[in-house]
# Entry
Amino acid sequence: MQSLQWRLVLIYLLLLLLAVEVTGGYLLQALEHYYLRGFVSAVDAQGQLVASFLERYLVPEPDRDYVQRLVNQFAVQSGNDIAVLGAGGELVAYGSGSAVGGQPHILQAQVARALAGARAEAVRLNPVTEQRQLHLARPIRSGERVLGAVYIASSLESTYRVLGDLRRLLLVGTSLALAVTAGLGYLLSLSITRPIREVTSRAERMAAGDFSQRISVLSHDEIGQLGSMFNYLTSRLDRTLEEIRAEKAKLEAVLTYMAEGLMALDSEGRVVLMNPACARLLGLQEPVVGRSAGELVPGLLEVSPGRAGGASTDAAAESVAAAEVGPRAAGPASPPAPAGSEGGPAAAGPVGAGIPPARIIRREGRILRAHFAPLGLEGGERGLLVVLRDVTEETRLQEMRRDFVANVSHELRTPLATVKGYVETLLDGALEDRQVCERFLHTVARETDRMTRLVQDLLLLSQLEHGQASWHMEPVDMRDPAGQALERLRPAAERKGLRLVLDAPDDLPLVEGDEAMLTQVFSNLLSNAVEFTPSGGSVTVSLRADGERLVSVVEDTGTGIPPEDLPRVFERFYRVDKGRSRELGGTGLGLSIAREIVQAHRGDISITSVPGQGTRVTFWLPRGDDTRAG
# Structure
């Protein structure tokens, strides 16, 4: 929203909206507290009444039949779910006043407090009806003795419907008030912005080169002062442009003979000069003089987060000069900051314009380090000299080392700590207990296997990413790698009671690929499916031809993946359920490896999932030829 007129209107609307929201929010909060307290009091009274009726029927032994009939009557009359529990926490009777019925949903914490003699309550979402419910538990006493507890679950939906109606009324009232305020604000702001539009129109003509523009000053207020200043600026700008042209010639002579990539910017961030080395580094062929440096190199003059000031090149030059005193002065002879560091050591200095003395730029596959130095221009203005150096290779190596150390140290820390703890325990005397010793040694072996799998997966992933893997490309019947992977995972599936299914037609076309690598893809996908599918579920592998592609689908009936985690599941070391994945021995690299292998076969892979229903992983490969699998 660039218009001042609409900004003024927006300010009026925001002030009104703030007042209404503060008042309405306080009112709604008070009403919600009032309704909820009243609801809790009514349910508590019902629980106290049920407890008093049941006291005589719980000693010496609970009369379950009578208690059940009594609870059913109360539940039907109140419309609530009522449960009676004995002194040991066992369920004595349960009655449902809702249409859903079924097994009782009891919060153990509230029951424990009630059996301890205290009243407890909580508001939770019913997993069956997906409605908010009040869960209240009261002790059933006989003197000082607690005979059991009454547990009542009552729906809060009616109360929240009333609160929702109140919110809608407040919203309608707020909308009407905002509409009226917008109209009045528009009329008021129009009287302010009309003179400014005239200044803007004449400024556009002046920017096109017509410096004869003059503003008629009709008043001595702020608008009139703006017109007078505009007239003064017009005359000054005409002379300043002539001075800039003279300085431009000097800068061109300096930049032409520099070996490193150099680019000179004027006070508005436009390219004044660029030497041939800079053009080669940026991959520029057409003339660029006069174009914006931000347009040619996105991010070059971008303001650093947390830094005050604008991105003016003139202000940046002054701040860079202030920050780079003595040996920190940027230029062709200044020592470069370490590759991979966004600003280098100099970036910590105060830069008023928000542009650090040095920064990293990515351009057409190259990583360039840009150093900034002030450059004096005619008339006291300051430009900016940008020195570019190609640091692609050293940055890539440092990023690889940093990522590898961070990820591997994170993954190895837990198993190493486990092994160290168990070994220390054995050394402290646990060796004398054979059962404990064997259990500890099994754990150490399992963690060692996990670290071995991690190293093997890292090695394979590194080979795939750097094109160092050995490929044995040949016509492959996709039923073969799928079947091998299924047989490999079948023992684990049978132990969990899972059903493995291979669905593939007999006339399946062949693909050109590495059978061992494709088996690895199916093994990784099936391993995840088996591990995260509960007992009694199924895992299905489907193969089908789709035009010029052969589509493979691995689908399970497991726990599924939350929607917020789906975009990141193919990242290395990323786990949805980190604790469970590590318990199952996963390295977090299976999907990353599968994607690298599929993409190396000129294919693609995707994943969809519904939490609680299952996950579907689909990958396709191009058909090799028209030969059909026999």
Q: What stands out?
A: The first helix runs from residue 4 to 54. The domain at 255-327+350-390 is CATH 3.30.450.20 (Beta-Lactamase). The chain has four domains: 4-160, 255-327+350-390, 396-465, 474-628.
